Amino acid sequence: MSEVTYYFNAYDTVTEKWETTPANMVDGTDASYAATTVDGAVQKLTANTCPGTDLGTITKVELRFYGYGDADDETIIRPVFAGGDGANHTIVPGVTAGWKAYQDITNDPNAPSWTFAAVVVLDCDVEVNDVAKGNTTRVGEVEIRVTYVTVPTVTTQDCDLIETTSARGNGNITDLGGVASCSRRGFCYMEGTGGDPTTANSVAYDDDGFGTGAYTKVITGLSQGTNYRVRAYAVNTAGTGYGTTVQLTTLAVGVPTNLTSPSQTENSIDLTWTKGENCDKTLIRFRDDQYPTGVEDGYQAYFDTGESVTVEHITNPITQEASNLGLPLYGASYIRASERINDFPVINISRVSFYLYKSGLPTGTAYIRIRKVSDDSILATIATKDVETLTTTPTWYDFDCNVDNPTQQDLRFTVEYDGGDADNTVGVRYQNADLLANAVSSFYISSWTDYGSYDLRIKIYNTLQPATTYYFRAWGYQTATTLYSTTTADLTQATSGGVTDYPISSAIDFGVALGATRLSYYLRSSPVPIGMALSSTRLGTFTRSSSVSFGIATTITRLAKYTRSSLITSGISVSATRLATFIRNSALSIGIAVSVLRGFIVSSLITFGISVSSSRSVNYIRTSLNTIGHSVTASRSVQWLRKAGYRITRYWDAL
To answer: Among the three residues 101, 134, 149, which one is the final residue of a domain in this structure?
Structure first.
């Protein structure tokens, strides 16, 4: 504790004063005295030297005087407060001059709540009570002693162990402020780069009886990548002492960098990236119309610790991940469980996932199927599952497939198992709530029963689409804090499309689609069939039945008719013109050039040459037994693969 002393420096010069040199009692020295021989004489002291500066919390206020009398005279000191007089404090000064004992007035009647401002207005009466009449009492000075405590003295050091949402504060209590211990120590903090926080802002602290010395406290609940002002503080009975303020900036979960796509196919996109700083995972989501707006928007492409992924599947809007019940499947009870999806769209189904488990020791095979609701026929058996490999804990099992739903229809996605018994089952998890729109759970014993208030735990995926642009957005993620980066890495990437390799399986099999549309498909049935579609219309279906037949669909015209009469027959209709005339002569066939085209040089036994549209003709020279040559309008050049005595063509359409 600390102490400070003041003295009274003014008196009542009119009524309450001693008769001999009363000013000597307030002159600031004990070398001269005010004196009186009058019993009951009172000198009122009306001011003191306290300036009112708040030094701390006052714990005690005392009065004393310097003087002397005779052996039995009494001197009374009585504080005078703003609210009235205090108690009489009686002292026998004795015959020897000197300072007399302090008199505690802290809790006197009418005493104020002590502050240094209250000390400023403290007055005092000095009264004589002579036991033996005629003796002289002398007082040279009246003193005030104030005992107080100050707030602790604290220093602040820089924070360390800085993370995304936490940091360790470092402080030191260098002075307790006159008390035995501090009741609290800690750190106060606020966001920003300027100003000094107080305990009215955010705080992190410990309570106990603390002495002087260094201390630390981990500050939690901070925001990533944020500036904070931090300072140490400690509390004692006098109040709160603060250190200086230091600056803190938390770490940020870094955004992934170098997000790129090194390769694509019609149904997949490869992505690579560099993981962001201060994170252990990367989340990538995507949409086909715009960038995802948040970490739950769009489709999830990746959420793990790696730095590459092949994106092949889109989680269809048919996704239900809640479950609170399980249905056991075994031969004497339910043998099928399904999620019935009404009006399932025309899409390619690439994966179906169920939340499965086993009880006991079932054996045999479970079947993962898609069935049509209309007749319960099997659209596809996606997978078989050895039930012994199932876990006893419900787990997601993914079943990849490649199933086209040819028309919008009601489908059931089923798990089927008819083995086991009541103690050895295959379990399917579901939720007893209607969570999926346009869908219900269906269970099967000998027939299907739909349960509109149930939904299986299921995920249904479809593939990426050819020649389609997707918008990828990546976030960094820190598992320990469950924080995502506040910024993202974005990539726009399209799947490939428009270039397809078409199989050729017959002896001489020729199919080409020309123009700006995608090649459809070809039917091949004869030893040497040829089918070609020209222009910007979609290729139709061609049927071949003769030994050597050739069919061509013309530009914006109906299918030409062809005459086949010899071993080698050619037919062509080109560029909105009439069917050209062909000369067919037994084993030798000559194909003419149409429109502003040059001719063909034909020299082999079976030769065929065509140049189409208004571009320049390609000259073909064929010398093998069977030769097919073709120049394609508005498309890339056709490559020819040659094997034995035949030429087999690989085609590109113009997409």
So the answer is: 149
Q: What CATH number should be reported for the domain holding residue 123?
A: 2.60.120.260
What is the tens place of the pLDDT at every residue in 91-142?
Answer: 998 889 999 999 999 999 999 999 999 999 999 999 998 766 668 899 999 9
Do 479 and 539 belong to one domain? no
**Helix-, strand-, coil-residue percentages of the chain, each rounded to 5:** 0, 50, 50
For residue 337, the number of C-alpha atoms closer than 13 Å in the C-beta half-sphere is 27
User: Which conformational region is residue 314 in: left (phi greater than 0), alpha (psi within -120 to 50 degrees), or beta?
Assistant: beta
Q: How confident is the model at residue 421 (pLDDT cuts 50, 70, 90)?
A: very high
Q: Are residues 127 and 216 in the same domain?
A: no
Give the lowest-confidence range in 158-172, 353-367, 510-524.
510-524
Same domain membership, residue 25 and residue 84: yes
- DSSP assignment of 75-110: EEEEEEETTEE---EEE---SS-EEPPPEE-TT-TT
Q: Tokens in use for 406?
A: 């040819």
pLDDT of 487 above 90: yes
CA nearest to 584, candidates 601, 572, 599, 598: 572
* CATH code of the domain in which 422 resides: 2.60.120
Q: Which of the pair, 498 or 491, is modelled with greater confidence?
A: 491
Report how far residue 357's alpha carbon sits from residue 363's, in angstroms, rounded to the nearest whole number. Answer: 13
Last residue of a domain, one of 463, 483, 512: 463
Q: How far, in whole angstroms, is CA 49 from its chain's centroid? A: 65
Count of structural domains within the chain: 5
